[in-house]
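ugh ok fine here u go
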Amino acid sequence: MRVGLYQLSGSRACLDGDDAKDVFDILELDATAIEKNIGTKLEWKKLPEGKQSRIIAREKLDPTDRDQWKQIFKWYADTVDKYREAFLPRLKAYDS
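structure:
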């Protein structure tokens, strides 16, 4: 399984691999607590037609507006930290 963080119009955890759907299901059972840890409502996308699943946090920021870049970088860095804190212990427990 691979977990990555990407910046588009938000931040997402991308679960990929043979057990991605099983991991997604386990994480989704704890969605309320995870969203509380991260501090925002997340989009839970199982994507049953493929091998990947995604968990996405969105923020209304415009990366084409240079005046927002400092705010965007801060939001992204903060969100990466929150993802790490919310997901890492749960993923380690799954691997055990």
